[in-house]
Structure formats: C-alpha cells, structure tokens
Amino acid sequence: MAGVQHAGLKTGKLRRSGAAPVGVLTKVLSIFELLDRAPGGLQLRSIADQTGLNKSTAYRFLAHLERAGYLVRDLTGAYLIGPRLVHLGANSTYQATICRLSRPAMEELWRETGETVNLGALDGTEVLYLDVLESPHHFRLSSQKGMRRAMNCTALGKTLLAWLPPATRDELLAHSKFEKRTPHSITQPSELLAELGRIQRRGYAVDNEEVETGACCVAAPIFDSSGLITASISVAGPVTRMGHNRIPAVAALVSGAAAAISRSLGYAESGSGRSRPVRTRKTRRG
Amino acid sequence: MAGVQHAGLKTGKLRRSGAAPVGVLTKVLSIFELLDRAPGGLQLRSIADQTGLNKSTAYRFLAHLERAGYLVRDLTGAYLIGPRLVHLGANSTYQATICRLSRPAMEELWRETGETVNLGALDGTEVLYLDVLESPHHFRLSSQKGMRRAMNCTALGKTLLAWLPPATRDELLAHSKFEKRTPHSITQPSELLAELGRIQRRGYAVDNEEVETGACCVAAPIFDSSGLITASISVAGPVTRMGHNRIPAVAALVSGAAAAISRSLGYAESGSGRSRPVRTRKTRRG
DNA sequence: AACTCCCGTTTCACTATGTGGGACGGATGC
DNA sequence: GCATCCGTCCCACATAGTGAAACGGGAGTT
Fold it and tell me: Which partner from A104, A139, A166, A191 sits 20 to 30 angstroms from B33, CA to CA?
C-alpha cells in the first residue's frame, strides 16, 4: 500500500453504460491483452509488473486460466495464449455475426435510397458478398449472397483494399488477379494504388461502370473494435438513378450506415488509449 | 470462508497448480463457453439460466464484456462472441506456440533415438513441417522447417488424417490430391481409409518407404485441451536403422513425446467434463 | 386505454470472496 | 558460502461482488 493516490485522472462521470465494471474482469482482460501483444510469452513477474497487479493476484488468475486451458506455459514458465482462447470464436463464423449486426443499418439504408444494398468482406483474394438487399425497382442491380467478385473493379473491393494495413494489402495485391469487366475497370496496379489513396482521403469508394456498364456503386468501410477493417457496405444502382450529382448524398448515407455498424461492433472512433493502467483496489484510509 | 480452505491435494511433486480457483473467473469462462456453443447468440435470460448464474451477476459480466469489445449485441439484445475475442490468438500464430512447447519433448526424442525428429501440422490440404531436429548421423533423413508434403504418403499426414473429425477429414480428402512418390505410396482412397483405421486402433502411424525409398517414419498424434488433433510428431530414419523389429520401441518413444506435448497443451486424457454446472455462491443459511 | 406479462436495468445492504503482505523453498549467480 | 530472484502458498481483513427486489418499458391481449 503506497499511500493515498488520488493523483490519477479524476474523470467525473464519463460512464456511458450503466452497470459498474467488475474489478476482476478488468484485471483478467488486461492480462489477455498484454499476452496478446507478447507473442513470445511472458513470465509471472513481468505480467504483474506490466499490468500493475499484485503478484499473488496475477498468479491466482494465471493458474486458473492455465487449468482452464485458456493459457499454456512453456518450460521456462512463461505464459502463452492457449488453444481454448484461440478457438473461441471459431464455431460461430464471425461473418455471420457481422451479417446479423449489419441488418438494421442495411435495411435503413435500403429504405433511404431505394437501391440495392450489399455487404461484403475479404475472402482469400476476392470480395465475398455476405448479404444483399435488392432494390424494389424493376430496373435494378441484382447480386446474391455468397457471390464473389474480383477486388479491383468493385467499390466494395476497393474499399476493403484502401483501409487494409499496407503490408497485408501489398501481399494481397501481389497474389490477386485483376479483372477487366468493362472499359472503365482499373487493371494497372499503379493506377489502382492511386485510386486507393483517393478513396481513403475521401472516405468512401465509387465504382463508376467498372464492373458493369451502366452500373454505379458507392461503398464505405466497416471497422471492428480493434480498428481493423472487417467489412464494407455499398449501395448499387443504375447510373440513370445514381447520377454524379446524387453520389455525395448517397455516400453520406452509406458512410453513416457503415459508422453505425462499426459502432455496434465496438469500434470507438476516438482512437485513443493503448495502455491504460489497471486500477487495483485501494484501502480506503490511506 | 466457505468452500476452499485446503485447496485439495498436498502432492508437492505433481506440477498441478494448486492455487484456489477464482469464482468470478469460473463464471465468466462458463459464459464464454456457453456463447461459443451458441452461434446464434443468447439473451441475458437464457445465459443466466444455462450457466446457473444470478441474472444480475450475469448482466454485470455481460455489460462489462460488451464494453470491452469481447462481446457484441444484436438488435434483439442477444449477446455474441465479439471481434476482440475472435482475434485474441491471432497475433502470435498458434503454431509458434506449439513449436515452442514441443521443443523439450522433441529434443528428448532426438537424444533417445538419434534420428531426425519432425513436428507437423495441417495447413490447407498439406502437411506443414513446423520444426525439424536433424539426426546427427551422416546418413540421415533431411527435412526442413516450412517444407510441405502431401498427406497421403507421410506418417505425419496419415496421423493428422486419422484423428481428424470424420466430417472434416472427408471434406479434406475430397479436395486433396494423392501423390505417388514410391511404389509403396497409398493412392487409393479406399486403401487409405483402411490404413487410417489401422492407425487409429494402433495409436501411431508408420510410413514404410512411402515417401522415399529406403526411408521409414513413425508418427503419433498431439491433441489440445479441446481434444482435437492439432499437430503430429514423428521420427524418421533409413530402414537400415529403423528395421521392423525396432519400430515398436520407437513408436513407444514417439507416443510418449506426443502425450507429453498434449499434456502441456492442456489435454487431459480422461476425456470428460463437457458441461459442468457453475457453482454459485450460496445464500447464508445454505 | 388499461392491464398483464416478461425482459433488461438499477439499487442497496450484507457478507462471502478476493486481496496482498509476507513466508517458504528452489534456482541461479556472485 | 551468501545474496537475489522467482514462483508458490498462507491467512486475517475489508472491499468488491452478490442477489432479492424494485424499476421501467416494450409487446401482446382485452
């Protein structure tokens, strides 16, 4: 016990969701995240130091987690993320979760624009259409769930590429093939890279008759709680209804929907606080 | 203090960690595992019911986990495994962990047999060599880390196939091609299936000049804490040193090493405990 | 509208539970 | 030999977690 420390932040009542946090949980999650950042594993001592937990407390947690198969130890005694933790999300494909969480926003977008709404994610070197809501118009762009398309000529694909970490993106581009479906399709790598830069600066992607002559498409990125792009949402319609002057308005709606989905995935736009110290219990009378 | 006072056994020799379990952890992990088995998500009420937790308690945990990004909620309020949980093990590839944990057992096996020791895992439709310790003999079987081979003609591959869940195995076999590297290689699916049955009954796999004429290989399966096969370990040498009469002895050593690695991965051979009820705190009178 | 039922959320007094300083014993290194 | 450092274990203490009950609000029924 090192005296009273009120020195820390005295952020008043910033708590947005009601229930009080559980101390044990805060501590255990901080261990998870510490270990996630340490591929080589960590010893009890350094875990205790880096999380600010008491050595006994950390030990109790680690021992419990090890017995449960969530952590493993190597011969030096270092703790590593274990099999049970790695496989946790494996059953319910995460894509199904994204699909389900996106539904409300997709439906709202569908109502607002009256056009076909698509949800897509990266799958291998292609875009996989996770979900589609078709426009009620007779003249519409028809897609279907489960369909795949090349990255280079769709707004969904270009969006996914634009926000991918550079290293991942470059490796992906090296292995993917560029389709030329219309005269507008971008097939030059250098040209595509320039386009990705424009997209990122602008905040959304436009497919101007690049996949189908007469078709126009506007897409925005969806991020998860770790800040990585996990999916992309788009509105697609004939150029007759999606003229140049309508695109900014549609883009605003698509971006709004994408932001809403990101939020429900736990994405907090104020990309902040990497390492927050764990508050340990303090005796009341210091 | 009800319950845990003596923490059970006083066996100093067994490396079982003796720290008393943490109630909150037990409860939270039971929520994780419940949600992992429910791809469609679960409501607060049914989570509380199925884990035996009090509704308030479950709520507090769920709210905290949601705020931390470990869980997400769909519009009906159902809780789902969230992005942070899915990506937890993603940084340190799990294969690196297996490698590290296997080292001691591999080195012991290497000392005991004096032959080349291989560690392999399934990667796509092939065997990926995760680690290799080469025999000190001048006449030896040389392999290297990162190498890939077809499943059908290696002891490692046959082992991985033999213990795979049948559905996974069948799908895999349908998409993989069979190499015929020597006259002994098994290329008939029906013949391979029969061999897999023999392997599973026997407990280990033998490659008798199926990948290289004059080479012999003995492999055993490695399981993780969920009971799934995650890797395979083998000893490889020239038939001149690995004669038929030496194979049972080598197989015993390989199986021992495999079992040791499985144990360090959290595998408990007494395949039990699917659903244990969570012990909740009892009201005072009991 | 008014009533009912069923959830999720919040509250609050109580005490069982997690806590952490300290002790023990085994490695490793001067 | 002595000095460190580490993981493990112990135990009295008081705080943090607990859960019954109350609250609030949406959906269905009359």
Answer: A104
